[in-house]
Amino acid sequence: MQLDNKVVLVTGGSRGLGKAMVEAFAAAGADVVIASRKLDSCEKLATEIREKYGRRALPVAANVSNWNDCDALIDTAYAEFGRVDVLVNNAGLSPLYPSLDQVSEALFDKVIGVNLKGPFRLSSVIGTRMAAGDGGSIINISSIAAIRADGLALPYSAAKAGLNALTEGLAQSFGRTVRTNAIQCGPFATDIADGWPAGLREHLEANIALGRVGMPDDIIGAAMYFASDASAYCTGAILRLDGGIK
After folding, report:
1. Percent of the chain having pLDDT more than 90?
2. Which positions carry the signal peptide feature in this UniProt record (predicted)?
3. Of the residues 36, 157, 160, 231, which is catalytic?
4. What is the largest CA-CA distance in the chain?
């Protein structure tokens, strides 16, 4: 599963699952575009990629909930590399709220914007360019919340369910040369886990067949599969990566 001289764009790429994927792609021979809202974090990782793997790394500040930011990110990536071979829609967020009736319009729009609106815009434009060129792969990072919704993160669940639908629709829209798949993640011990209430991790692990939450590196195998030619006959798939959660 090599990616020699491929160009991979990862949103939310400076930390957590995004960082793990960026490092794996670079190790496999890819040049990377690292996008997130905080440019300094992207620049720091880009420097590490260049020094450790000898690959080109382009840091870009972008808020994917903003249509103009998405377009600027695309223009910057294509100006630097001339193409994008793999797009990973990884940026996501799920703010806490006290109760459903206290979910503000601003919070709802923010959650939908980052988790669904951004992936739609990036995939629509980049996917069209991929289809007109040599093809490519789009990978959406979804969540088990898309099919196991509860009142604790309902806007997030709705957005990720939409992302699952988007995955299947893009697969049909951009076939035959562009593959679109999703990795539906369970709970992972990224920096977001720092905000978990006391006892939540233990509760989750008691209900996971493998007995533990995921670690960032656990996403690498699935991401490399979908990014590489190993998945040449796979599109429209939604892969559960949750340790067997009940």
Report:
1. 91
2. none
3. 160
4. 51
Domain total of the chain: 1
CATH number at residue 182: 3.40.50.720
Beta bridge partners of 23: none
Q: What is the pLDDT confidence band of residue 114, given thresholds at 50, 70 and 90?
A: very high
> 90-110 pLDDT, tens per residue?
999 998 899 999 999 999 999
In angstroms and rounded to an integer, the radius of gyration of the C-alpha atoms of the chain is 17
Three-state secondary-structure class, residue 33: strand
Measured distance CA(88)–CA(236) in Å, rounded: 15
Return d(Cα 88, Cα 162) in angstroms, integer. Answer: 16
In the three-class reduction of DSSP (H, G, I as helix; E, B as strand; rest coil), residue 197 is classed as: coil
**Per the residue annotation, which of 65, 137, 143, 157 is the catalytic one?**
143
Residue 246 lies in a domain: no
Structural tokens at position 148: 């196991």
**Does residue 2 form part of some domain?**
no
233 as an active site residue: the answer is no
Residue 1 lies in a domain: no
Alpha-carbon dihedral angle through residues 66, 67, 70, 71, given to the nearest 10 degrees = -140
Is residue 143 flagged as an active site residue?
yes
Range of the domain at 130: 7-241
What global pTM score does this model have?
0.96
Q: Does residue 157 carry a catalytic annotation?
A: no
Q: In the β-sheet with 238-241, what is the strand arrangement from edge to edge? A: 57-61, 31-36, 7-11, 86-89, 136-143, 178-185, 238-241
The Cα–Cα gap between 210 and 190 comes to: 18
41 located within any domain: yes
